[in-house]
Each structure stands twice: as C-alpha cells, then as structure tokens.
C-alpha cells in the first residue's frame, strides 16, 4: 500500500501538463480487437487500469505492449480468444468494454459480469439490451455474460439512459454489423468522440458521435491505425481545483477547453479567475471561494467525476452550496472523510448541503474510490497540518498519472511514507 503525507498550506504556482485520458484510452484499447495489424496509441497514461486492460487483451491472445513513457502498441491477428478472465474483469469494470468488439469480431464472447463498485451497483443491462438489439443471443451463466451472434445486424436502439460504456460497447459492435445502426439517447462525452475518431480512422463509418444520435454503417473489416488519445478532462479539472483551493496561480497545459466548459463555468461562479488560451488554462484564485449549487449530469452537464473535488472546494466557501449527484447513487463517501477534516456537510437524499467553513484540518483519511481520493488530496493541500492518505495505489493512482509529482512540481508539500510509523513518529 502506498501512503502519502500532505502538509497543507502551500500556495500552488507554476505550470503543469495534463496526461492523456484514461477513459478514452480504455475503450480504444478494447476497440483494437476489431482491427487487424498493429495499432500504435500515443498519449496513453501509465496507470494501473491501462495495464489491466493490456492484460485483458493479452488473455485474448492479442499482443499488447506498453512502451514508456506513453505509447501502447497492439498487434491483432486472426486468432482472438473468446473468454475474458474473471480476475481481470472483476478488478476493473471497464474491462466489460471488450464485450461488443469481441462479439462483433468472433461471433462469441464470454465475459464475467463486472459486479458493483464503491460508487454504486453499476449494472450492465443497457450494454446487454443494446447488443441484443443488434441480434446477439445473450445468456447469464454462473456469473458470466455469454453472447453469441454469427453476424450482428444493424438496428435502431434507444438507450434507457445515456450510459457512456453502453454507448461505446454498442458503437464498437455496430462497426462490423450488417447494415445501419442508429443509437438514440447516446452519451455525448468527449471520450466517445475520441473512440469514434479512432474507429473512423480504422475504416468505420460513424456519424453523429458527440450528439445524442449516433449512426453507424457496418463495414467488413477495420484496419490497425495510429492514434493520439485526447487530454484527460477530469485530471485537468482536478488540477484546476487544486490551484483554486490553495489560492494559487497555475497554468495547466494540454487541455481541450470545450471538454471542460461546465467545470470552468462553475469555478468562475465560485469566484475563481480562469483564462483560456488555446490548449492551456490559467487558474488564478486571489479572493475567497463563493458558494455555488451543482447538479451532476451526463456531458455536457457537470461531470460526476468532478463532484467530489468540487465538494472539497466548496467546503471552504463563504456560504452554503447544494451539490446534487444524479448519475451514481452512492457517490458521497468523500463527505464522511471531509467531515473528519472539519468540513460542515450534511447529506439529504441525492444532495450534499455544504456549509462553508474557514479552515480544514489535516487528518488521516481513506479514499474508497478514485475521485473521492482526489477530493481528499485537494482538501489536504489546504488543510492545516498533516493529511495522511492511504491506498494511493489502489484508488487514486488508478486514474491520475503521477499526481503527487505534478503537485510537488507546483510547490505542494507531499511526502511518501514507507511505513505507518513514519507518520506516527512525526
Ligand atoms: C464512465 C466513466 C466513469 C464516469 C461515468 C459517468 C469510463 C471508464 N468510466 O463509466 O468515470 O463516472 O462514465 O460519466 O469511461 N447504468 C445502468 N446500466 C448500464 C450502464 C449504466 O444502470 O448498463 C447506470 C450506472 O449504474 C450509473 C449510470 O448509468 O448510475 C452512468 O453509468 P455509465 O455512463 O455507464 O458509466 P460508465 O460507462 O460505467
């Protein structure tokens, strides 16, 4: 277990670069199953989740190699296995992204049900319904989803909810289906556009990605291609909040401003000065933080993946904010830890009522999911005294490439603790 100690109170300043997007890399790695030949993906963040997806591909008989710093090469030939191993898929929900491509490519896929996770039950019913609409016969047996289709056939699909993963899974499967598929009420996240761009380069016929109606005209085969992954908008937003909460002055490079519009708008409403200049953004926070109300929504709404970090920021606002979570049913675990740091937050149904306090106090805290962990880091940067964060490698580092090093480069006081006694002795 990797633990870090943050000594709060340092104002962040300087320049920092955002890594490639984890949530764009994962489905694109899965999409390589649809291709033949060698794909080279660049700007892939070096994260545990990416390594897990590489291991999933390898288990399917595909050669996949990570070349530091940020390139993954994938070689796919005619022999792709059908069964994804239980221990990998249950480790990471995004492994389920292989279902659609595997089925489309080989006509048969056996993938374990990913199960729930800390932020909610997260079923895959919408993925399954979408694949069934393309003609797949799907059975659940002994905890595995087994899908068969000698040839998928395009159809009109209306998703019950604009699920990111279901949109991606169905879009990937439809690229090799016979005829036209129309996905209505599709998710519009930038990661879906990146996946579509990769598939289009590979020879797929897709239009409408980034809108709520995606059309896919099936083709016979896809070729391996090179692709650069988009910047990680959630890492960008997290770094912006880290700058804002410490009243810092930070330039964040490698961003796409269109992807972080809703975050910029909310931070400006909270009194943070933000100027966008091409692919970089300067966050300047001379005054205090004003309260703002937030409702998480699918893109282009405020992202659920930024909700915990925003709650940490608003914990120090000069008034009361109401933060409502509509995407996941159990995404307020950071609230209990923030309260241990002195935050005044009350949970009421889907909302957190955040009464701003003058200061947070450092404390030993535990992150139980990736973004909750990011919220605790952000809080630790400004808290009085020391904040000990456990399980960095199990949660936070699944989604943030070198986050502690990046923050240290901006002036944060973050130390790695080898043993728990290092903390108790200090
Ligand atoms: C993706 C992101 C995750 C982000 C989420 C919402 C990746 C790897 N992960 O997750 O970081 O928080 O989008 O922006 O890209 N649902 C169902 N049935 C389904 C599918 C989803 O009920 O078949 C529900 C989920 O339980 C959840 C909501 O729909 O409550 C949104 O989930 P979804 O958009 O599918 O998120 P993921 O693709 O899992």
Number of helices: 14
Largest sheet: 5 strands, mixed
Class of the largest domain, according to the CATH hierarchy? Alpha Beta
CATH superfamily of the largest domain: Enolpyruvate transferase domain
Taking Cα atoms only, what radius of gyration do you get, to the nearest Å? 22 Å
Bound heterogens, unique: uridine-diphosphate-N-acetylglucosamine
Function: Cell wall formation. Adds enolpyruvyl to UDP-N-acetylglucosamine.
Subcellular location: Cytoplasm
Family: Belongs to the EPSP synthase family. MurA subfamily.
Domain Enolpyruvate transferase: 8-407
Helix and strand layout, with pairings?
Elements: E1 3-7, E2 13-17, H1 22-31, E3 35-42, H2 48-59, E4 63-67, E5 71-76, H3 86-89, H4 99-106, E6 108-112, H5 125-133, E7 137-141, E8 144-148, E9 156-158, H6 164-174, E10 180-184, H7 190-201, E11 205-207, E12 213-217, E13 222-223, E14 226-228, H8 233-245, E15 249-253, H9 261-269, E16 273-277, E17 280-284, E18 294-295, H10 307-314, E19 320-324, H11 333-340, E20 344-348, E21 351-355, E22 364-366, H12 370-382, E23 386-390, H13 403-409, E24 413-417, H14 420-425
Parallel strand pairs: 2-15, 3-13, 3-14, 9-10, 18-19, 22-23
Antiparallel strand pairs: 1-23, 1-24, 3-5, 4-5, 6-8, 7-8, 10-12, 11-12, 15-17, 16-17, 19-21, 20-21
Helix pairs in contact: 1-2, 1-7, 4-6, 5-6, 6-7, 8-12, 10-12, 11-12
The structure holds uridine-diphosphate-N-acetylglucosamine.
Active site: 117 (proton donor)
Organism: Candidatus Saganbacteria bacterium
Binding site for UDP-N-acetyl-alpha-D-glucosamine: 93, 305, 327
């Amino acid at each position: 277990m990797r633990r870090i100690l943050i000594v709060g109170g340092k104002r962040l300043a300087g320049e920092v670069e955002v890594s490639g997007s984890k949530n764009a890399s994962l489905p694109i790695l899965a999409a390589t199953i649809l291709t033949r030949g060698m794909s080279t993906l660049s700007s892939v963040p070096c994260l545990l989740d990416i390594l897990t997806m590489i291991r999933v591909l390898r288990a399917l008989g595909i050669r996949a190699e990570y070349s530091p710093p940020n390139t993954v090469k994938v070689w796919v030939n005619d022999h792709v296995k059908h069964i994804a191993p239980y221990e990998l898929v249950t480790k990471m929900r995004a492994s389920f992204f292989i279902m659609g491509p595997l089925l489309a490519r080989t006509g048969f896929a056996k993938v374990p049900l990913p199960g729930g996770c800390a932020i909610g039950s997260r079923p895959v019913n919408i993925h399954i319904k979408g694949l069934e609409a393309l003609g797949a016969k799907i059975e659940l047996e002994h905890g595995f989803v087994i899908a068969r289709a000698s040839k998928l056939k395009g159809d009109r699909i209306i998703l019950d909810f604009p699920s990111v993963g279901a949109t991606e899974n169905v879009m990937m499967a439809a690229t090799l289906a016979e005829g036209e598929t129309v996905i209505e009420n599709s998710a519009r996240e930038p990661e879906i556009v990146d996946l579509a761009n990769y598939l289009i380069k590979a020879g797929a016929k897709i239009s409408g990605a980034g809108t709520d109606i995606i059309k896919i005209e099936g083709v016979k085969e896809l070729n391996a291609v090179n692709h650069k992954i988009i910047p990680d908008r959630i890492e960008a937003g997290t770094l912006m909040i880290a700058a804002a909460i410490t009243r810092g002055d930070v330039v964040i490079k490698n961003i796409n401003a269109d992807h972080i519009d809703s975050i910029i708008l909310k931070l400006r409403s909270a009194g943070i000065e933000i100027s966008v200049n091409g692919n970089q953004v300067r966050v300047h926070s001379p005054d205090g933080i004003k309260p703002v109300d937030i409702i998480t929504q699918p893109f282009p709404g405020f992202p659920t993946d930024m909700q915990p970090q925003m709650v940490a920021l608003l914990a120090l606002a000069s008034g009361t904010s109401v933060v409502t979570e509509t995407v996941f049913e159990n995404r307020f675990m950071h609230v209990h830890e923030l309260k241990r740091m002195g935050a005044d937050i009350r949970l009421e149904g889907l909302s957190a009522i955040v009464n701003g306090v003058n200061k947070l106090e450092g404390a030993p805290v535990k992150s139980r999911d990736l973004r909750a962990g990011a919220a605790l880091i952000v809080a630790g940067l400004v808290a009085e005294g020391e904040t000990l964060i456990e399980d960095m490698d199990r949660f936070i580092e699944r989604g943030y490439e070198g986050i502690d090093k990046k923050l240290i480069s901006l002036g944060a006081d973050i130390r790695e603790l080898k043993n728990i006694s290092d903390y108790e002795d200090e």
